[in-house]
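> example.struct
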């Protein structure tokens, strides 16, 4: 005699869906210090806001066939004029090897050229070529508009206040980092 199976009372998933077991939350205790909790929330919020704005920037620059680091270099040269390679490195926060690699790549594309320094044979300048200038005259206004749209979640007055607050926060964090011996060694080697 055939046996009959009992029907399960558990709800069934729709065909093709995957059931995932989610373990209960365990581990870290909640943060009882309100100042620490606020600082962590601020850090997370700033990080997420930056990631969202940076993604909009990357998408806009990709349409111009540039990556963010390449754009940082051509933008610095566009607004500052020819710069020593070491100054380019400091302005765009890249390693010396990264700066050399990107300047090489931009040079191959005909956007940047190296120029000799008349006062020091060891020093080299990076400068935009005529093609680089022409490209930036087209690309920069478009990118500036994209960044304006990315910041449109805040009014102009709020953006000014936020800029001041972030500058103050950045300076305080840099001073705190400089107090750390490991950071001082890293700063001294740059």
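> example.seq
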């Amino acid at each position: 005699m055939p046996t009959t199976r009992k029907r399960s009372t558990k709800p069934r998933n729709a065909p093709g869906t995957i059931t995932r077991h989610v373990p209960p939350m365990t581990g870290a205790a909640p943060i009882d210090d309100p100042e620490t909790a606020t600082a962590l929330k601020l850090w997370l919020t700033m990080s997420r806001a930056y990631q969202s704005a940076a993604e909009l920037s990357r998408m806009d620059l990709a349409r111009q066939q540039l990556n963010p680091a390449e754009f940082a270099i051509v933008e610095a040269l566009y607004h500052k004029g020819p710069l020593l390679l070491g100054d380019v490195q400091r302005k765009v926060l890249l390693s010396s090897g990264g700066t050399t690699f990107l300047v090489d790549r931009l040079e191959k594309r005909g956007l940047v050229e190296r120029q000799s320094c008349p006062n020091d044979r060891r020093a080299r300048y990076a400068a935009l070529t005529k093609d680089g200038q022409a490209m930036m005259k087209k690309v920069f206004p478009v990118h500036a508009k994209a960044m304006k749209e990315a910041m449109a979640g805040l009014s102009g007055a709020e953006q000014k206040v936020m800029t001041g607050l972030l500058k103050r926060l950045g300076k305080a964090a840099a001073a705190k980092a400089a107090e750390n011996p490991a950071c001082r060694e890293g700063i001294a080697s740059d």
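> remarks
Residues 34-63 form the longest helix (30 residues).
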